[in-house]
Amino acid sequence: MLRALAQPCKRPAKTPPCSPLVGLFACVALAFSALPQPIAAQALPQTAPQISAARYIEPTDAYGHGAVAGGEYGALEIIWSTGARQVLRASGGIFEDTHPRLADLDGDNRPELVTVVADFTAGARIQVYAQPDATQPHAQPVAATAPIGQRHRWLAIAGIADLDGDGRVEIAYVDRPHLARVLRVVRVYPAPGHTGWQLAEIAHQQGHSNHQLRAPQIEGGLRHCGGLPQIITADAAWRQILATRLGRDGRLRSRSLGPYEGPDSMARALRCPGAARP
């Protein structure tokens, strides 16, 4: 069920003065009716457009980084539930990623898009796209992290979820998984009308990686085994698989799940203990 969209109130005209000919109760009612009254929320029709899929298109070598095999693209294509298609390009850069991610970041049961943009001079940043008008099949950039600050410096998204159980969504990523190897968590602070969104870092921890240089895939991700989601990464040396939780106190706590023995071992780590083998 889509969340109803509240309509803005309009300021009424100035309240007319009460006349002695008007009874007391009528006067009070007249004054009250002149105050701003909320307009009844209207549910979006079932046909209201929303993002149903997205992909990166137009492979390019304009950036020339090569950190992700086949992972640099000139454009992002959005497919809407109505069948409409929209193509977006990143100003001053390209998309450097494995795939765009659909996630409901503001709790309205409508997905937003989370991407990684690599600026030609400032390196990678997380870029969020959202639909400012729920009646139109059109998305635009609404929030971003600060870029890493140097060309050919990348980040790999690990997962998107309410990581500490407080009802707000976080994005976990590894900052420079081949160099700095820092797990960072940014919290999404949405705003009405998809304007003025913020992505603010709330926690970070050294010693993580989730991508090996030139590999086509990001390893690890999130697993949900009861309680808080766990961020699954490798340690900085790719010897151990780590499970990390974000506590309500804002601290990241990690434990080893065992040795890293290749991508299959990371895939097994994403399954909950006791889960049947797929």
Polypeptide structure, described:
By secondary structure, the chain is mostly beta strands. It is built from 2 helices and 19 strands. The protein has helices spanning 24-33, 263-269, and strands spanning 5-7, 39-42, 51-59, 72-80, 85-88, 93-96, 101-103, 112-119, 123-130, 140-144, 155-161, 170-175, 182-189, 198-206, 208-209, 221-223, 230-235, 240-246, 252-259. The strands form 4 sheets. Strands 3, 4, 5, 6, 7, 8, 9 and 10 form an 8-stranded antiparallel sheet that branches. The two termini are 31 Å apart.
Helix and strand layout, with pairings?
Blueprint lengths: L4 E3 L16 H10 L5 E4 L8 E9 L12 E9 L4 E4 L4 E4 L4 E3 L8 E8 L3 E8 L9 E5 L10 E7 L8 E6 L6 E8 L8 E9 L1 E2 L11 E3 L6 E6 L4 E7 L5 E8 L3 H7 L9
Antiparallel strand pairs: 1-2, 3-4, 4-5, 4-6, 6-8, 7-8, 8-9, 9-10, 11-12, 12-13, 13-14, 15-17, 16-17, 17-18, 18-19
What share of residues is helical?
under 10%
What is the rounded Rg? 24 Å
Residue ranges: pLDDT <50 for 5 or more in a row? 1-43
Largest sheet: 8 strands, antiparallel
Distance between the termini: 31 Å
* Average pLDDT level: 87
Q: How many distinct beta strands?
A: 19
Provide keyphrases for this structure:
disordered N terminus, mainly beta, five-stranded antiparallel sheet, globular, single chain, 6% helix
